[in-house]
Amino acid sequence: MTVRFSQIDDGNRADHTRLGPDDRCLYLFEYTSGRDYSFSATNSLINNLKKKPTTSESQLRYKAQAIAQCGAYFREGLDPAWLARATLVPIPGSKATDHADFDDRMTRVARAIQPDLDVRALVRQAQTLRASHEVGDGDRVSVEELLAAYQIDETIAQPDPVTIGIMDDVLTAGTHYRAMQTVLSRRFPAAAIFGLFVARRVFPT
Predict the structure, then answer these.
(1) Are 168 and 175 in contact (CB under 8 A)?
(2) CA distance 121 to 118
(3) pLDDT over 80 at 129, yes or no
(4) Structural domain boundaries of the chain?
(5) How big is the chain by its Cα radius of gyration, in Å?
(6) Span 129-151, mean pLDDT?
(7) For the structural domain made of 6-202, what CATH number should be given?
Protein backbone atom coordinates (compact mmCIF):
# COMPACT_ATOMS: atom_id res chain seq x y z
CA MET A 1 0.00 0.00 0.00
CA THR A 2 1.01 3.61 -0.54
CA VAL A 3 1.74 5.43 2.71
CA ARG A 4 1.02 9.12 2.96
CA PHE A 5 0.88 11.52 5.89
CA SER A 6 -2.25 13.54 6.60
CA GLN A 7 -2.25 16.81 8.53
CA ILE A 8 -4.34 17.75 11.54
CA ASP A 9 -6.55 20.60 10.34
CA ASP A 10 -9.78 22.41 11.11
CA GLY A 11 -11.77 19.31 10.23
CA ASN A 12 -10.29 17.09 12.94
CA ARG A 13 -8.42 19.35 15.38
CA ALA A 14 -11.35 19.27 17.82
CA ASP A 15 -10.55 15.59 18.41
CA HIS A 16 -7.19 16.63 19.87
CA THR A 17 -8.02 19.31 22.40
CA ARG A 18 -4.45 20.30 23.35
CA LEU A 19 -3.59 21.32 19.80
CA GLY A 20 -3.92 24.85 18.48
CA PRO A 21 -4.23 26.17 14.92
CA ASP A 22 -0.49 26.87 14.74
CA ASP A 23 0.53 23.30 15.57
CA ARG A 24 1.81 21.34 12.58
CA CYS A 25 1.01 17.69 13.29
CA LEU A 26 1.01 14.85 10.76
CA TYR A 27 -0.25 11.28 11.10
CA LEU A 28 -0.32 8.12 9.00
CA PHE A 29 -3.28 6.06 10.21
CA GLU A 30 -6.30 6.11 12.52
CA TYR A 31 -6.37 4.08 15.72
CA THR A 32 -9.87 3.29 17.00
CA SER A 33 -10.24 3.79 20.76
CA GLY A 34 -12.08 1.13 22.73
CA ARG A 35 -11.35 -1.63 20.23
CA ASP A 36 -8.75 -4.37 20.57
CA TYR A 37 -5.95 -5.46 18.27
CA SER A 38 -8.30 -7.54 16.09
CA PHE A 39 -10.38 -4.52 15.03
CA SER A 40 -8.01 -3.19 12.37
CA ALA A 41 -4.48 -3.40 11.03
CA THR A 42 -3.67 -0.11 12.77
CA ASN A 43 -5.01 -1.27 16.13
CA SER A 44 -2.89 -4.42 15.78
CA LEU A 45 0.20 -2.37 14.88
CA ILE A 46 -0.20 -0.03 17.86
CA ASN A 47 -0.93 -2.92 20.23
CA ASN A 48 2.31 -4.60 19.19
CA LEU A 49 4.27 -1.36 19.36
CA LYS A 50 3.15 -0.74 22.95
CA LYS A 51 4.04 -4.20 24.29
CA LYS A 52 5.98 -3.82 27.53
CA PRO A 53 9.71 -4.60 27.53
CA THR A 54 9.13 -7.10 30.36
CA THR A 55 6.70 -9.20 28.35
CA SER A 56 7.71 -12.59 26.91
CA GLU A 57 10.31 -13.00 24.19
CA SER A 58 7.65 -14.32 21.84
CA GLN A 59 5.62 -11.13 22.30
CA LEU A 60 8.70 -8.92 21.96
CA ARG A 61 9.21 -10.33 18.47
CA TYR A 62 5.91 -8.73 17.49
CA LYS A 63 7.10 -5.46 19.03
CA ALA A 64 10.34 -5.56 17.03
CA GLN A 65 8.39 -6.23 13.84
CA ALA A 66 6.07 -3.29 14.57
CA ILE A 67 9.04 -0.98 15.17
CA ALA A 68 10.61 -1.98 11.85
CA GLN A 69 7.27 -1.59 10.08
CA CYS A 70 6.70 1.89 11.51
CA GLY A 71 10.22 2.89 10.49
CA ALA A 72 9.48 1.80 6.95
CA TYR A 73 6.19 3.74 6.93
CA PHE A 74 7.93 6.92 8.08
CA ARG A 75 10.66 6.42 5.48
CA GLU A 76 8.08 6.10 2.71
CA GLY A 77 5.85 8.93 3.93
CA LEU A 78 8.43 11.64 4.68
CA ASP A 79 10.30 13.78 2.17
CA PRO A 80 13.98 12.68 2.05
CA ALA A 81 15.12 16.31 1.81
CA TRP A 82 13.14 17.16 4.95
CA LEU A 83 14.57 14.15 6.79
CA ALA A 84 18.10 15.19 5.86
CA ARG A 85 17.81 18.49 7.71
CA ALA A 86 15.49 17.42 10.54
CA THR A 87 16.27 16.37 14.10
CA LEU A 88 13.92 13.57 15.15
CA VAL A 89 13.02 13.78 18.83
CA PRO A 90 11.02 10.87 20.31
CA ILE A 91 8.50 11.56 23.04
CA PRO A 92 9.70 9.68 26.15
CA GLY A 93 7.69 6.73 27.39
CA SER A 94 5.85 6.91 30.70
CA LYS A 95 8.60 5.13 32.66
CA ALA A 96 11.90 6.64 33.82
CA THR A 97 15.11 5.08 32.51
CA ASP A 98 15.70 3.07 35.70
CA HIS A 99 12.27 1.36 35.52
CA ALA A 100 12.02 -2.24 34.30
CA ASP A 101 9.41 -1.21 31.73
CA PHE A 102 11.34 1.78 30.38
CA ASP A 103 10.43 1.76 26.69
CA ASP A 104 12.44 3.53 24.00
CA ARG A 105 10.21 2.32 21.16
CA MET A 106 9.94 5.69 19.44
CA THR A 107 13.72 6.14 19.46
CA ARG A 108 13.97 2.71 17.85
CA VAL A 109 11.32 3.65 15.28
CA ALA A 110 13.21 6.85 14.42
CA ARG A 111 16.46 4.94 13.96
CA ALA A 112 14.69 2.32 11.84
CA ILE A 113 13.77 4.96 9.25
CA GLN A 114 17.34 5.04 7.91
CA PRO A 115 20.75 4.89 9.58
CA ASP A 116 22.12 8.38 8.88
CA LEU A 117 19.41 10.56 10.44
CA ASP A 118 19.83 13.00 13.32
CA VAL A 119 17.90 11.16 16.05
CA ARG A 120 18.26 12.70 19.51
CA ALA A 121 16.37 11.97 22.73
CA LEU A 122 16.64 15.65 23.62
CA VAL A 123 13.91 15.46 26.25
CA ARG A 124 14.38 13.15 29.21
CA GLN A 125 11.68 12.20 31.69
CA ALA A 126 13.03 12.46 35.23
CA GLN A 127 10.34 10.33 36.90
CA THR A 128 7.90 7.54 36.18
CA LEU A 129 4.37 8.70 35.37
CA ARG A 130 1.08 7.04 34.55
CA ALA A 131 0.83 5.46 31.11
CA SER A 132 -2.06 7.28 29.45
CA HIS A 133 -3.24 4.24 27.47
CA GLU A 134 -3.57 2.24 30.71
CA VAL A 135 -5.76 4.64 32.71
CA GLY A 136 -9.15 6.31 32.35
CA ASP A 137 -9.54 9.74 30.81
CA GLY A 138 -9.84 11.43 34.20
CA ASP A 139 -6.54 9.94 35.39
CA ARG A 140 -4.42 10.83 32.39
CA VAL A 141 -1.22 12.73 32.96
CA SER A 142 -1.49 16.51 32.53
CA VAL A 143 0.65 18.95 30.59
CA GLU A 144 1.75 20.48 33.89
CA GLU A 145 2.93 17.11 35.24
CA LEU A 146 4.89 16.46 32.08
CA LEU A 147 6.50 19.89 32.12
CA ALA A 148 7.64 19.22 35.69
CA ALA A 149 9.12 15.86 34.66
CA TYR A 150 10.72 16.81 31.34
CA GLN A 151 14.34 17.94 31.12
CA ILE A 152 16.50 18.88 28.15
CA ASP A 153 19.53 16.60 27.81
CA GLU A 154 22.18 19.26 27.37
CA THR A 155 24.85 16.68 26.58
CA ILE A 156 23.32 16.20 23.13
CA ALA A 157 21.78 19.64 22.59
CA GLN A 158 24.44 20.83 20.14
CA PRO A 159 24.30 21.64 17.34
CA ASP A 160 20.99 23.49 17.69
CA PRO A 161 18.29 21.79 15.63
CA VAL A 162 16.92 23.77 12.68
CA THR A 163 13.85 21.59 12.22
CA ILE A 164 12.44 19.27 14.88
CA GLY A 165 10.11 16.32 14.31
CA ILE A 166 8.51 15.26 17.60
CA MET A 167 7.68 11.57 17.19
CA ASP A 168 5.07 9.47 18.97
CA ASP A 169 2.87 6.47 18.30
CA VAL A 170 -0.67 7.78 18.89
CA LEU A 171 -1.96 11.35 18.98
CA THR A 172 -4.82 11.44 21.50
CA ALA A 173 -5.58 14.78 23.16
CA GLY A 174 -2.12 16.07 22.26
CA THR A 175 -0.98 16.41 25.88
CA HIS A 176 2.49 14.94 25.39
CA TYR A 177 3.03 16.86 22.17
CA ARG A 178 2.00 20.10 23.89
CA ALA A 179 4.51 19.54 26.71
CA MET A 180 7.30 18.52 24.32
CA GLN A 181 6.66 21.45 22.01
CA THR A 182 6.73 23.83 24.97
CA VAL A 183 10.02 22.51 26.35
CA LEU A 184 11.73 22.34 22.96
CA SER A 185 10.56 25.74 21.74
CA ARG A 186 11.83 27.36 24.95
CA ARG A 187 15.26 25.80 24.47
CA PHE A 188 15.44 26.12 20.67
CA PRO A 189 13.27 29.14 19.80
CA ALA A 190 14.50 29.35 16.21
CA ALA A 191 13.62 25.74 15.34
CA ALA A 192 10.58 24.83 13.25
CA ILE A 193 8.67 22.13 15.15
CA PHE A 194 6.40 19.42 13.75
CA GLY A 195 4.56 16.47 15.28
CA LEU A 196 4.88 13.09 13.54
CA PHE A 197 2.54 10.31 14.63
CA VAL A 198 1.96 6.74 13.53
CA ALA A 199 -1.76 7.26 14.12
CA ARG A 200 -4.32 9.60 15.55
CA ARG A 201 -7.04 8.37 17.90
CA VAL A 202 -10.60 8.20 16.63
CA PHE A 203 -13.72 6.91 18.31
CA PRO A 204 -15.99 4.16 16.96
CA THR A 205 -19.08 5.42 15.20
Answers:
(1) no
(2) 10
(3) no
(4) 6-202
(5) 16
(6) 77
(7) 3.40.50
